[in-house]
């Protein structure tokens, strides 16, 4: 898994440029996986458990369009799986009447984030714990029982 930026305009954006909101990029992770070990469908399910799919303008304490909930797909099969999963989540009423606003978009060029963003949770355990305390853990408990 690699941290980076995608979905905007301009090549090789920096974190400072992305967080300024001027590039249109989304902060994202690129996951390389072996389908013999985990399916794309399972990865999408994991994604739902890590985000608030009803919040179009950020995730927990991270606010702004660069934190919007989006699934980037590489082909029609991934799109079909992601759309079906989103539909199932909406129909489940797990979030009450709230609309699932997570976008499903074609994958765009992916630019690696700076080194200090890679494996952030390992390099900065205290800061990572503080970020998790920003509402994510409570949200996961309330909605997923985790």
From TrEMBL:
<feature type="compositionally biased region" description="Gly residues">
    <location>
        <begin position="1"/>
        <end position="10"/>
    </location>
</feature>
<feature type="compositionally biased region" description="Polar residues">
    <location>
        <begin position="14"/>
        <end position="24"/>
    </location>
</feature>
<dbReference type="InterPro" id="IPR036509">
    <property type="entry name" value="Met_Sox_Rdtase_MsrA_sf"/>
</dbReference>
<dbReference type="GO" id="GO:0008113">
    <property type="term" value="F:peptide-methionine (S)-S-oxide reductase activity"/>
</dbReference>
<feature type="region of interest" description="Disordered">
    <location>
        <begin position="1"/>
        <end position="24"/>
    </location>
</feature>
<dbReference type="Pfam" id="PF01625">
    <property type="entry name" value="PMSR"/>
</dbReference>
<keyword id="KW-0560">Oxidoreductase</keyword>
<comment type="function">
    <text>Has an important function as a repair enzyme for proteins that have been inactivated by oxidation. Catalyzes the reversible oxidation-reduction of methionine sulfoxide in proteins to methionine.</text>
</comment>
<comment type="similarity">
    <text>Belongs to the MsrA Met sulfoxide reductase family.</text>
</comment>
<dbReference type="InterPro" id="IPR002569">
    <property type="entry name" value="Met_Sox_Rdtase_MsrA_dom"/>
</dbReference>
<feature type="domain" description="Peptide methionine sulphoxide reductase MsrA">
    <location>
        <begin position="2"/>
        <end position="129"/>
    </location>
</feature>
<protein>
    <recommendedName>
        <fullName>Peptide methionine sulfoxide reductase MsrA</fullName>
        <ecNumber>1.8.4.11</ecNumber>
    </recommendedName>
</protein>
């Amino acid at each position: 898994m690699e941290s980076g930026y995608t979905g905007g305009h301009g090549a090789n954006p920096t974190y400072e440029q992305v967080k300024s909101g001027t590039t249109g990029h989304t902060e994202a992770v690129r996951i390389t996986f072996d389908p013999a070990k985990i399916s794309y469908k399972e990865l999408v399910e994991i994604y739902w458990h890590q985000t608030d799919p009803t919040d179009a303008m950020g995730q927990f304490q991270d606010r702004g369009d660069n934190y919007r909930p989006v699934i980037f797909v590489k082909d029609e099969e991934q799109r079909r799986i992601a759309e079906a999963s989103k539909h199932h989540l909406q129909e489940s009423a797990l979030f009450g009447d709230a609309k699932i606003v997570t976008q499903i978009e074609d994958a765009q060029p992916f630019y690696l984030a700076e080194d200090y963003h890679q494996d952030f949770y390992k390099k900065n355990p205290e800061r990572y714990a503080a970020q998790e305390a920003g509402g994510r853990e409570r949200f996961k408990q309330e909605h997923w029982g985790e």
